[in-house]
Give the backbone structure.
Amino acid sequence: MKRRRGPAARGARPLLLLLLPVQAALMIGVGRLVTGPAAHHWPLEAEDGAPRALAEHRDAPFLTAVSEWLSALGSTQVVVGLTIVALLALLGLPRIGLLGLPRTALRREALFLAVAVAAQSAVFVLVTAFVERPRPDLPRLDAAPPTSSFPSGHVGASLALYGGLAVIAALRLRGPWRPAVTAALLLVPPAVGLARVYRGMHFPSDVAGGLLNGAATLLIVSAVFLHGHRSAPRPDRGRLPERPHLPAPAPAADSSGGRTVLVVRHPFGCPDDLAERLRAVLDGHGHTHREQRWIRTTAERPAGALAEELAAHRPALVVACGGDGTLRACAEVLAGTGIPLAVVPCGTGNLLARNLGLPLDPEAALEASLAGDSHPIDVGRVRGDGLAPTRFTVMAGIGFDAAMVKDASPRLKSRLGWAAYVLSALRHLRDPSVRLTIRVDGVRPRRRRARMVVIGNVGTLQGGLPLLPGARPDSGHLDVVVFDPRGPGGWLAAAAHLLSRVLRRPPTTPAGAAGTEAGGALEYFTATRVDVRCARPQPRELDGDPATDGTRLTAWVEPGALRVQLPRTTAVREGEEEEQHGNSPTRTAAPQRAR
């Protein structure tokens, strides 16, 4: 009979991470042996001939170009960038059922990959501090970094990344492509090692040391995060996702008593066939075709003629069919009117819909919203140099995130969705930080250097990644993060820290409090008013739309200014218990706060 591992055995697995210092000590010992007593014995005494023999073939342009490409696969910038892409893919691709993955975010696998890459990098840096080995004495095709030649950092990083992806592929992929994908990923690290020897950057023993370092890291980290773990079962399709706790519904009054519904439609996000299906959903909830007034948006007027229609007819409901930009434009007009807004996600990011727990299928979102109640949520208001006062519902940012949004290709966004932003972000990983001051609720300005500052009304990004874990759309304040990773290690630490939050519910930060996390790469504030001033002009964005560059961004909160239609969450068990005690069952339960 097979014995099951109990909670004590599972709780002891994180202690295996204590083997990483042991691994570093062993790698230092191997490095001292390679550079000391074993250096004058075979095979180490003859390995100098390998890079020299390969250097004789550098007159072949094809081989040199291939070696350059392979070497780049193990470089710090590419490994960091591809790690971020892989983490977002592990959290996002399963939700849409690609590659035969289970339809749940692979959170444990994502954490495994992030920790493996970060741990390998940490061990590598520690080993090179105690082992000094010069690089081969021959012309080198790459600039030599100021680290020891042993072990190869390119090879260790590539094994941690591509080997980690191979482990995930072998465990989670389904179908005939699983062995092909796994084998292809496993071939990358030795190919990178061969390229590094060809380009005169390492001896064969350095490559072997990099492979050993990466393999030991994968073994330890996989034992902690993947051993004995099964993919989560497919969630119940009939159950709505969790959404933030919001106050009890209070339906907005319609002074005209009419049932007019204004539907603001983005023509590309909501094409004609989808519009007809949404029209049928409205009709099924009693809003006949005669009561529906459809408004098309344009680039110049992102809310279309909504303001004019509101002046002529006070509707019972406004439906926004588009992305976060369309929703922001509608919120700009509706805030303070008491007219409820139904969110139909038809854009690239759909962050407001995600944070409110709405289904991402447009028809399902409209169906659930019409069957629910209206709730007040906060909106943010922002202004700056060259930026007229305007509202936002999701986030406003200055710096790296705005540059990513600004440079994202519209063609790629139409084909890849939000993954196009990830590709744009890779081009800005090496952008310098900027000096800035940040003033929170009028207190003394704080001086910082940062890559970006994000001010959020909500805090969860695609894939459930909680950038602002304490942000809630009904909190009455805004949440702020100052992002300043220092070097590749800082990027990896921040990525690992954010991914670790996906696996647990983080505590909220009290209003007015501040704190730093991920080794200082992330600094958090909560406030009702935030003023950011940069030393030089920076890109700015509002709800995923680029704004004009500038040096200043001032934001404040308008509590409960916008009413949004949200689905009901029926508490069957609570209702049954109340019936047993003689009380009438509640029709709705308090919605839970989104992770």
Notes: The chain has a mean pLDDT of 81.
